[in-house]
Write a structure and sequence with these properties.
Elements: E1 12-16, H1 21-32, E2 36-41, H2 47-51, E3 55-58, H3 64-73, E4 79-82, H4 95-123, E5 126-130, H5 143-162, E6 169-175, H6 184-187, H7 190-199, H8 209-219, E7 230-233
Parallel strand pairs: 1-2, 1-4, 2-3, 4-5, 5-6, 6-7
Helix pairs in contact: 1-8, 3-4, 4-5
The protein binds nicotinamide-adenine-dinucleotide.
Nicotinamide-adenine-dinucleotide (NAD) is lined by residues 16-17, 19-23, 41-43, 59-62, 83-86, 104, 130, 132, 175, 177-178, 180-183.
Length: 240
């Protein structure tokens, strides 16, 4: 292995929530760089991704059985990315809604990690989890989302240590403010948006493609010494 190679050529990548905004941008970037991509989601990805060679498997990450079933269909995996996500503004104060949101973001992460650990052990692969700015800051409107995203940082550290003898690295990306479906409610709320822009150093919602370079790097040999960390990719938000 060349430790300064940034290549992901020929790697097998699975992206949960891969039909969403960030997942699709990751799928596109890995395909463009010669990787084999499996997208899993509740909905089909854009035709463009299927035409570029992505494979699609329907998968609800809240189902233990479904995650295991998909893991049995996959022979080889080098990179596992958990991008499935949802939030429910204000409704997350209801315990049942809270449970569902944590189930997707946190338990979904654990289900995928557990099901694909043997695959990743065989390839000495890596996992990329997805945090959030709410991994670091409170969010009164989405308490379950913030609790789960904070827990993803701890899970990332813990799995990195637990899997180290398997040769599996586990890191996370904490995206800043990205223009996708999940953030539409915030973007279209003038009060929220004005407050955000008053604090956000780069003063704009970012494109999901702006996260892809970090995912490619974390999946490549160039990041071989990086393990257990969550990298904010946030236009300076956490520094402000
Ligand atoms: N957009 C942002 O500003 C932002 C910021 C920080 C973190 N994130 C995180 O990035 C990840 C991707 O979000 P996005 O911005 O692409 O949002 P998105 O809404 O575009 O995509 C989320 C995808 O997850 C899928 N999904 C939802 N529930 C699922 C389930 N039970 N099983 C499988 N798939 C499911 C949806 O169908 C959708 O395709 C999420 O974890 C999100 O929390 C996003």
């Amino acid at each position: 292995m060349d430790p300064i190679s940034f290549s992901v050529q020929g790697k097998h990548v699975l992206i949960s929530g891969g039909a969403g905004g960030i997942g699709s941008a990751f799928a596109k970037a890995f395909l463009q760089h010669g990787a084999h991509v499996t997208i899993t989601d509740l909905k089909a990805p854009a035709d463009e991704l299927l035409q570029a060679g992505a494979r699609f498997e329907f998968l609800d990450v809240t189902s233990d059985d479904a995650v295991l079933a998909v893991s049995k269909k996959i022979d080889t995996l080098d990179v596992l990315i958990h991008c499935a996500g949802k939030l429910k503004r204000w409704e997350e104060h209801q315990p049942e809604v809270f449970r569902n949101i944590v189930d997707i973001h946190l338990f979904g992460n654990v289900r995928l990690a557990s099901a694909f650990r043997p695959h990743l052990k065989r390839t000495r692969g890596c996992m990329i989890n997805i945090g959030s700015m709410y991994s670091y800051f409170g969010a009164p409107q989405v308490p379950a989302y913030a609790a789960a995203k904070t827990a993803v940082v701890g899970l990332t550290r813990s799995l990195a240590l637990a899997y180290i003898d398997d040769g599996i690295r586990v890191n996370a990306i904490a995206p800043g403010w990205i223009a996708t479906e999940i953030s539409r409610g915030g973007r279209e709320n003038p009060e929220f948006n004005d407050k955000l822009m008053g604090r956000l150093p780069n003063k704009r919602w970012a494109d999901p493609e702006e996260l892809a370079g970090t995912a490619l790097f974390l999946a490549s040999p160039a990041s071989s010494l990086i393990n257990g960390v969550t990298i904010p990719v946030d236009g300076g938000y956490t520094s402000a």
